Amino acid sequence: MTFFVYISGRLLLLKYINIKNFVSKLLLIIVIFTYDSTISFSNDEIVDLKIRKEELTKEANAGNSQSQYMLGRLALETKTPPDHSTAVYWFRIASESNHIESQEMLGALLFSGLGVPPNPKEAAIWWYKAAMAGSSKSQASLGVLYALGSGVPKNAIEAYKWLTISAMSGNEAARIQRDDSIALQMTANEIREAQKKVEALIKKIKK
């Protein structure tokens, strides 16, 4: 199985994992999540990026989670190579204030081992928080972790559940992974059980 993690269009991780007992024995491509947009600034902001960073830093140090998130994104998108350690620092602080996008990004960096040692178990924790807050990207990412048994116990029913919930929000990659991989490894009873879990969990997820 081939896994890709993208942040702002940049490839962060390429990991090959053998699928045991997979009917077709083929390699499968999973996009954990893709960010479609990059940070945009007006012309004045581009010219005064240093000043803007100083302003964001002041706001971030005062506890503004959106500014903390923006500093994390800037560390990735305005430096060559990206400053992953600084990004992790700001995303973690913002995540502790329940900033969903920061939780998504922190999970990706923890899973990828960029800026920090790889830690799929902690990635699962942050992705779960974001998933319960309605993040379809984190829901799909949890589904992938359960499919792999990375950071969480390997569980096809849980994988199917999270991928389904993500697909219900329009995540086409999650639907494809569920239908073309996970479902093929499950019995009819397991799929029915997963569907019941979806019905129960979806009531608890924030809209």
Task: Give a nutshell description of this structure.
The protein has 207 residues and is mostly helical.
Describe the protein's architecture and organization.
The chain is mainly α. The chain has one domain: Tetratricopeptide repeat domain (Serine Threonine Protein Phosphatase 5, Tetratricopeptide repeat). The protein contains 10 helices and 3 strands, in the order βββαααααααααα. A 3-stranded mixed sheet has the order 2-1-3. β1 and β2 form a beta hairpin. The chain is elongated. The relative contact order is 0.11. The N terminus is likely disordered.
Give the arrangement of secondary structure elements.
Blueprint: E1 2-7, E2 10-16, E3 29-31, H1 43-47, H2 49-61, H3 65-77, H4 84-95, H5 100-112, H6 120-132, H7 136-148, H8 156-168, H9 172-182, H10 188-202
Parallel strand pairs: 1-3
Antiparallel strand pairs: 1-2
Q: Beta-strand percentage?
A: 5-15%
Counting structural domains, the number is 1
What is the assigned CATH homologous superfamily? Answer: Tetratricopeptide repeat domain
Multimeric status of the protein: single chain
In the CATH hierarchy, the third-tier topology is known as Serine Threonine Protein Phosphatase 5, Tetratricopeptide repeat
- The helicity comes to 55-70%
Radius of gyration: 18 Å
Strand order of the largest sheet: 2-1-3
Largest sheet: 3 strands, mixed
Query: Could you state the order of secondary-structure elements as H and E?
Result: EEEHHHHHHHHHH
* Mass-distribution shape: elongated
